[in-house]
Amino acid sequence: MSAEIICVGTEILLGDILNSNSQFLARELADLGIPHYYQTVVGDNPTRLKQILAIASDRSEIIILTGGLGPTPDDLTTETLADFFGVPMEENLDVLEDITRKFAERGRQMTPSNHKQALIPKGAAILPNPSGTAPGIIWHPRAGLTIMTFPGVPSEMHLMWEETAVPYLKSLGWGKQIIYSHTLRFWGIGESALAEKVAPFFHLANPTVAPYASKGEVRLRVSARAPSQAEAQQLIQPVVEQLIQIAGTDYFGANTDTLSSVVGQLLKDANQTISVAESCTGGGISSMLTNIPGSSDYFLGGVISYHDSVKTSLLGVKASLLEKWGAVSKPVAKQMAGGVRSLLGTSWGLSITGIAGPGGGTEAKPVGLVYIGLAKPDGKVECFKYQLGKDRSRDAIRHASVCNALDRLRRRLEGSRE
Amino acid sequence: MSAEIICVGTEILLGDILNSNSQFLARELADLGIPHYYQTVVGDNPTRLKQILAIASDRSEIIILTGGLGPTPDDLTTETLADFFGVPMEENLDVLEDITRKFAERGRQMTPSNHKQALIPKGAAILPNPSGTAPGIIWHPRAGLTIMTFPGVPSEMHLMWEETAVPYLKSLGWGKQIIYSHTLRFWGIGESALAEKVAPFFHLANPTVAPYASKGEVRLRVSARAPSQAEAQQLIQPVVEQLIQIAGTDYFGANTDTLSSVVGQLLKDANQTISVAESCTGGGISSMLTNIPGSSDYFLGGVISYHDSVKTSLLGVKASLLEKWGAVSKPVAKQMAGGVRSLLGTSWGLSITGIAGPGGGTEAKPVGLVYIGLAKPDGKVECFKYQLGKDRSRDAIRHASVCNALDRLRRRLEGSRE
């Protein structure tokens, strides 16, 4: 038994809109434990929609359609369904009354084309639309097959799904087995390196373990199928513990944790504060730290020392060092971190200086060269050097640099020497 | 002749990620004039992917696949393609060398699983990936059928599409009737207000005019179909001029322009510099300004004055003002802007202080209250007050505040009194 999703709309095929309905429905089906293997997008074209219905009704038992329920001539989903299954359309008086009332309430003129929305295949039940004029249907055109239709407007679709479709699917026995997931997040290790470390876990059946990578961060998603969240968590817990143990300090958090939320919590726990001095990232670390509500508890502020004059005047970086080593260097990164820590009187001082590109690189100091300085509560200052790939964009280099800096701070706050 | 898109990835079926690749490719195919009638999503499952390939290769002449090219065991797109068409896989030494070099450059250890990424079906050509390790292929497994594969990572896929796929498709004769678009960008006016002002333009046939809105920015996309870009531009130009005229100062730029790139160009043209003092946006203005390559020409630096002590010690905001009016107030915003301008010796000083939420709001100063200070080259300081909707997220309030600040600076640089 499985479900599939068909989104109908030429505007999706033209790339005019992002298909967020598929993602919403995919997540909802997962939560209900309904297996779901295919998603299709097709235009407002009856012939092609019928071809898709032939394929889908052959391989799935629940077909969920969105789009094509509106009043205009290119909205053809309902009549194409009736035609495909060889069933006539009937005017539904309850729907007609509902549409008429909604138009009156909104002080709008009902047009003849709105009457079309009251036509549904004979034998189908109405899937009410509380917030719009176009209702959907729940229909069993033949034994073992369920069709559900929704308008393409996401807000209307969501409400109809929650109010009618979910209770209906639960009444059929779904939602007894749920899929519950726990995501582990890693920084400082590549996807393939982590995947090799935890390779045996990819063969587990319940829970399953799958890797993902995005913008330098690697994730492992541990998903269990069970009758309840508590039971799913019981299946997940030992696997999660083993994965964290194997990954070591590259693991930084779970689910909605971010590097900045984790660093923030560690600073709060330690009753410590931080300030930041940024060059190439131009406010990126500060911006990420302050993205966390309540960050004023530990983040006092920072200096964007984009021009060298700001490094000397505000951060106390010696002009002789800048001249000898250049702005992108270990000594300058260290003085920036120590300087901002003193200036703002914080426990920690974190600095970045580097070459984000695309210009500004040299043979000796190529684009992607980044130094991170970390002044610690005891006054000592460390420095970390990175050479990010030259082929990466300015955006990517800045983002990775911000995350590397936060990650270095995290490791020290956790007491790691790595 | 038509193309179709197949996105491979269980993470899409689970609803973990939004399928933005389909939208990108759909728009690109439209621009090239290549008909495209179907999009499919399928999981990392060879049996089901083969079923989809059977359907797709029967109805389309170009099949574009994204996802499943990574190094982990669940990345199966390439080998499933080879298996489906009954062709052996071969190690491509150029690809192996390229992957080896990229790992070396990043100082990362290459693992045996990365070798897998150098295996391609015999007879397929490489579709190079300049920014990642996984290359794609361009392959004619049989006469009249073209297969192209891309990694699922959007940034890598976009670059590969633009650098190799587009020239290839053009060499096959596509893109002769091209769709050329010019996007006008607006800040400071809502979508419906702008739409009403330019309503008659929405009925044009060639070029067409369509509105979009995203994160407070409104865009009008003017698209013409013509045999060449020059001819399309001729159709577009008079419409663009009229739209800009009607919109007035709310129009800030076109196509890839951003508020920060426009402000940067205006500062460069005027040979002026800027510094920034930020509280609630925590580095967001600085980060956006320095996202532009070459921004060191006009952006000297800034102060993140998150804690009030930083406002007094670095920016010279009087403690008495903070006590009397509070940190989120017109007098404090003005002293912050004047203070950072003096401190860094720049032509302009831009400041923000506000309540980003979700906590910290009061009856008198609700979440979303933001003051923007602008110290001008003549030493005078202006202040602008915003009350952003209380129902907006912290992220949204911070983003809108950064854009409002840049937009105020833009209007002054353009000499507008609005």
TrEMBL record, chains A, B:
Domain MoaB/Mog residue range list: 4-172
One Pfam family this sequence matches: CinA_KH
Origin: domain of life: Bacteria
Spans through the membrane: none
Family: Belongs to the CinA family.
HAMAP family for this protein: CinA_B (MF_00226_B)
Protein known as: CinA-like protein
Native species: Limnofasciculus baicalensis BBK-W-15
